[in-house]
Write a sequence for this structure.
């Protein structure tokens, strides 16, 4: 399949095959893809919580408005943002750059100072909004990688984040959930798999100047 055929093959899976599991290798590919997502400033203030346990996930159906994908999929990926983003994150980021690239302080210091002042100057709600946008980038990346790997997925905003955070004890990790991505394999009788894609014509969505 070409990449376009793979993107046409993917759809928001409504019914997963409960008997099929992702291999450890496929799961690792998704974890690596998440970690390789390009994020603003390169600051990785997102975390991916991978929930395999079916008992835990059964409790999440209610907070996901009855959407069974959260439990019927092979794994549930929960895209989370940190509740606190501060200069500690900037320090850690620059320590990592230094350790990996051996870049001298005199080159890094001006960038570090600029990043710190931007982060410090952001009110909390703006930081949350900014981090949330980063989570959507990771979601898009994961969905595309799923399509390439022929893994089915369903992007989900339809859940109650505060209740899900409570159920998974995310607060103790300093995290808030933003998006869900159940991943696995489509059930043979998921009628949505055969629906034609509904998209505008390219002439309506692309402007060439
Ligand atoms: C951010 C986001 C949130 C979504 N939330 C849900 C959801 O809660 N439940 C669901 O069944 N589909 C959800 N969808 C799936 C969309 O409805 C679907 O992607 C869109 O209609 C296009 O269809 P397709 O993905 O099958 O091509 C969501 C999609 C995105 C991108």
């Amino acid at each position: 399949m070409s990449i376009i055929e793979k993107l046409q093959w993917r759809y928001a899976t409504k019914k997963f095959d409960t008997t099929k599991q992702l291999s450890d290798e496929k799961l690792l590919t998704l974890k690596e893809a998440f970690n390789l997502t390009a994020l603003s400033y390169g600051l990785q203030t997102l975390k991916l919580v991978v929930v395999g346990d079916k008992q835990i996930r059964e409790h999440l159906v209610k907070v996901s408005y009855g959407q069974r994908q959260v439990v019927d999929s092979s794994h549930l990926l929960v895209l989370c943002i940190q509740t606190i983003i501060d200069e500690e994150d900037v320090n850690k980021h620059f320590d990592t750059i230094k350790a990996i690239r051996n870049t001298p302080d005199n080159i890094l210091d001006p960038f570090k100072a600029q990043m710190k002042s931007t982060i410090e100057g952001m009110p909390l709600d703006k930081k949350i909004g900014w981090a949330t946008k980063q989570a959507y980038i990771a979601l898009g990346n994961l969905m595309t990688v799923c399509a390439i790997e022929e893994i089915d997925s369903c992007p989900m905003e339809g859940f109650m984040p505060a209740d899900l955070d409570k159920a998974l004890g995310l607060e103790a990790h300093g995290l808030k959930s933003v998006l869900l991505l159940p991943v696995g394999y489509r059930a043979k009788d998921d009628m949505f798999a055969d629906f034609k894609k509904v998209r505008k014509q390219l002439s309506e969505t692309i402007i060439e100047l």
